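Researcher: Let's run the pair from yesterday's discussion. Sequence first, then tokens, for each.
Model: Starting with the first of the pair.
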Amino acid sequence: MKSLFAIGSTAVILSVAIAGASGSPDQTSSKPAVPTFTKDVAPILYKNCTTCHRPGEIGPMSLLTYDDVRPRAKDIRDKVADGVMPPWHADKAHGKFANERGLTDAEKSVLLRWANNGAPKGDDKDMPAAPKYVDGWTLGQPDAVIEMPVDYKVPADGFVEYEYFEIPTNFTEDKWVQALEVRPGARAVVHHVIVTARPAKPEPRPGGFTFAKGMDIPRGQTGAQAAEKPVDPKHGKGQSLFPAPQRLGVFISGFAPGTSPFRFDPGSAVLIRAGSTIVLQMHYTTNGKEAIDRTKIGLFFAKEPPQTEMRLGTLINGQLKIPAGEQDYSITADMTTLTDVTLRSLLPHTHLRGKSWEYTAIYPDGRSEVILSVPKYDFNWQTEYIFAQPLKLPKGTRIHAIAHYDNSAANKSNPDPSVDVAWGDQTWEEMMFTGIVYSIDGVKPGENYKLELPGRGNGGQ
């Protein structure tokens, strides 16, 4: 039998041998090389980031060149590691979405290792060609461009009531539009744009939903019955040069910070009737500097008549009133399908006190499921959540939405935690608004049809 000393000696020899093997030149050379900007980082940024991070876009800095990116390497590392960028706020536990922003684990690893190892540039010959953007248009050159008829001067201070610009299309035939892109002329002061198409003659087209009672927008506010709007005692009376027309038409597109162009799948499109007038509802926010805006909309026509007509609508509860200092106040809204409907997307919208959203579908057979949860709503990124597989909602399905608000001093974005807050157009007021995109099953594109309306329809298409 070997002595304990002999066994121990053997163990030491083996340990040394193993250690020597692990430190061999072959093993050392297999250590992953440090990524470079030109070969490894630029392709990731071009694929995931430069749509927003380029001159004239929503991103606060350009990420197109090494000189742009190198000073921000550590900030990119921290934002990627914390999951702040790319911005995506839906809970992965509920629903899958076609437009989800995100990086793969391999892409995250490249960015982190690059930033942690000196952020080297690499060889210029490895640099990929920069992505091309047509005159600022994300989707390429539009088939038609609709532009505000005047340069609009946004004042440096005060506030601006919603302005409405009417632009004739001069279309001599119906147009099927597969994509629409809104391009603000002065992005820093454009809070949102709502685009509607008003046919030459009124054309009632019932929507696919009816809504719970008691959610109307207060009289005098935009979208409600007319009434004298009181002068805000703190902010005074706002500028308004282009008042709302009597008819707006049907909702076809929109813009808010963080939104992407409306682009529908092949075979799907929205309808603009011949002779329609485009109406732009413009919401401007002053920021201390005068600005000139001339917003335009790019229309991309379908190459052939669609099989599915897309419709846009809204779910609103205008009766909200959030008490001063309330840190977690909730508001609900409900809509029910009048017929079989296919739901394509949801776009939740509040102002600066909004903190979270959740949407639940309650089916006629009693089943229910959370179809979208946004636990950390971000006013600066107004995302349209497009379902990877559009949701089939049989007649009688109820969509229940709940939004939470923080009207306390703990909310650093809160304009004034000392006041109760009601529905209003301006950012110091609040909204509970959801944009919806859907289609009605079994109805031919462009067809007018009749539904038995037990309550109010959505006033849309």
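Model: Moving on to the second of the pair.
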Amino acid sequence: MEVFICNKNVKLETERLILRSWKETDLNDFNEYASVPGVGEMAGWPAHESIEVSKGILDSWLSGESFQLAIVYKENGKVIGSIGLHKSWADDMEEYKNLKTKEVGYVLSKDYWGKGLMVEAVKEIIRFVFDDFGLDALTVGYFSHNTQSKRVIEKCGFTFVKEMQKESKQLNKVFDGYDYIVFRN
């Protein structure tokens, strides 16, 4: 069941991270990680070819059209990624359609891979959607080539549901993909 969650004035904190609403002043940090080949492709979008591409996406996030938070590394105050909530694949499945669900998606600067930061961010989002919004379940998916996401998903307690073909319209490719779910309680 589709649920609206507003991302205005959201600020969540973990040991090493702040997850917060985006600001116009985040543009350079956003473009810095989003323009690196291999970062966006893991999530199904191409590297940004210009700061104008990053600005267009950031402007859409600032408008509140979607739930996206900046991931800020406390140690240096830099925006190093994003984490968002989207319509869930579970909404289209008979056994889950009456549940209040969202799907989490995320991307992290290559410079910060392998440090457990995304596990920290996703666990905080799980807490947030269950405790603050009473969602019944949170879903996630990954492309078969994204083994980093697979590890994040498993470390955060998600359970495998199904394998399927996932289309990336932005990359104009179809990948093998895997969908997972975690339930409240």
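Researcher: Give me one sentence on the second I can quote.
Model: The chain is about 25% helix and 30% strand.
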